[in-house]
Each structure stands twice: as C-alpha cells, then as structure tokens.
Design brief:
With about 240 residues, this protein is an alpha/beta fold. It has a domain at about 75-240: 3-Layer(aba) Sandwich (Rossmann fold), CATH 3.40.50. The chain is about 35% helix and about 15% strand. Strands 2-3-1-4-5-6 form a six-stranded mixed beta sheet, with helices on both faces. The relative contact order is 0.13. It binds guanosine-5'-triphosphate (GTP) and magnesium ion (MG).
C-alpha cells in the first residue's frame, strides 16, 4: 500500500509545534545569552558568589570617571538540561540547588523554568522543561544544545516507569555523546524501587559501556524530617566534574 500523504492539518500542527519549540529555545538563549545576571544574596545559595559592591555617594571621586572601566571577566557558560516525567522532582531540584525551600505539593511547570548558578570557574545554566505529556515533544529539540542531561525519575512511581524508560532512551539515542545523569529521586518513600531494580527497569545495563551514564539515588525533598539519605549535593558535585 502506498504511504498516505500527510494531511494539511498534520503538517500545520507539526509546523506549529516546531516553531514553538524553537521559540522556547530562543527565549532561553536570549534570557541567559545577554548575560543578564541574577544577584545572589549571601546565604541564598550555599556556594554563594560575592555580591558586587557599589561605591557609596561620599566615596565618589570625579577622577574615577576618567579611569577606564575595568573589563569584567566573563565567566564561561555550561548548560544542563533537566528532564523527566511530570512530578518527578525537576522544579524541586532547581529550587533546592538555588538554596530555596521546596514548595508544598506539585505545581506543574507549563513551559520551562531555569536558574543560573555561579561557580568559581564557570556559570551553570539549568533548564527544566515541564514533564507533562504535551511538553515532552519539545525535549528532543534541546538535547543537542547542552553539555549534560539530568533525567529525574520518581523511584516510587512504578506504574509510569515504562514511560520514563521510553522517554529516557529516546533522548539517549538522540545524542549518543551526551553525558547523562539519571537521578532516582524520592528514595525516602517506602515504596521506592531499589537502585538494582531501577537500573534493570530503566534498561541501563544495555547502554554502551563507553557512554557516560550515571544512576544516582536521591531524596531531593524528603517527606520526613529525619531522613538522612543524600539530597542534591552529590548530584551537584558530579555535574561539576562532568562540566569541568
Ligand atoms: N517524598 C518526596 N517527594 C519529593 C521529593 N522531591 C520532590 N518531591 C515532591 O514531588 C512533587 C513534584 O515535584 P516537582 O519538582 O514539582 O516535579 P516536576 O518534575 O518539576 O514536575 P513538572 O513540572 O510537572 O514536570 C512535589 O510535591 C515535591 O515536593 C523527594 O525526594 N521525596
Ligand atoms: Mg516542574
């Protein structure tokens, strides 16, 4: 049977989706690309950069104006894409890394969400794209543009693990050289799958040995106060190693 030609509606929808994906990407690039910096309050982020100090009025010296402005050293940028099914904990990850407390309950990200974190040697831009079904279509548009992919999985969501696996493998196939950090989140929950189980169910043993794919256990925002498993610090340390 001859292949059916694509109807005009399908073509129009496909075109609109591609345009929206590009627009999202351009917005992100524009937001960060202009070097629009967020000023971190001391103590807001635990690696906090020193805030710039402006001179007081009585310290102002007109001769200073003639001095050439010192060139601001531009820090290099590193880009990290944060994906995973809705409710896995992506926004919580970004919040906790920024030194903010997790929000109560799940507030879905209807588009994208990003933070820029300064380090000694470079700045790290983390971009989350919402995990709801209609947004997953755009994920693949971004994977070739970043330095590392973080894929967050809800370790207690057994029912949807096959979906997570499918999406993860689509991304792995899209860019075979991209380092990937799979975060097995919500390990604090009693129904959470073990790391051995997750490695098997996510099909990670089958991934090429040469490839940089890591599976890390995490409890980014543990439900109980007494839980002592690692939060985000070990993920951040691995990211810094991969980005260096
Ligand atoms: N028990 C437990 N809950 C967590 C953990 N991390 C995040 N959560 C909760 O999981 C829910 C969803 O978290 P979000 O960060 O909003 O999920 P998301 O991946 O950004 O979801 P979308 O934006 O819809 O794609 C929130 O209620 C979080 O508090 C964890 O380590 N343990
Ligand atoms: Mg979110």
């Amino acid at each position: 049977m001859a292949p059916r030609p694509l109807g005009p509606l399908v073509l129009a929808l496909g075109g609109a989706a591609a345009v929206l994906g590009s627009v999202l990407f351009i917005l992100w690039k524009t937001y960060f690309g202009r070097g629009r910096e967020r000023r971190w309050d001391r103590g807001e982020a635990w690696w906090g950069a020193e805030a710039a100090r402006l001179p007081e009025w009585d310290e102002w010296d007109p001769e200073d104006e003639e001095d050439e402005e010192p060139a601001l050293e531009e820090l290099e940028q590193r880009e990290v894409l944060v994906l995973g099914l809705d409710g896995a904990g992506k926004s919580t990850f970004l919040r906790v890394l920024s030194g903010k407390p997790p929000l109560e309950g799940h507030i879905p990200t209807w588009g994208f969400n990003s933070v820029r974190l300064p380090t000694k040697d470079f700045e790290v831009d983390l971009l989350e794209i919402g995990g709801s079904q209609n947004l997953r279509f755009y994920w693949k548009e971004f994977v070739n543009e970043v330095d590392v992919l973080v894929f967050v999985v809800d370790s207690a969501d057994r029912l949807r693990l096959p979906w997570a696996r499918q999406e993860l493998h689509k991304l792995l196939d899209k860019d075979p050289d991209l380092p990937v950090v799979v975060v097995a989140n919500k390990q604090d929950l009693s129904e959470a799958m073990s790391m051995v189980e997750l490695q098997r169910e996510l099909g990670l043993q089958a991934v090429d040995n040469q490839r940089e794919v890591f599976l890390l256990a995490a409890s980014i925002a543990p439900a109980g106060p007494s839980f002592e498993e690692p939060g985000t610090v070990h993920i951040w340390k691995l990211l810094l190693e991969l980005l260096s």
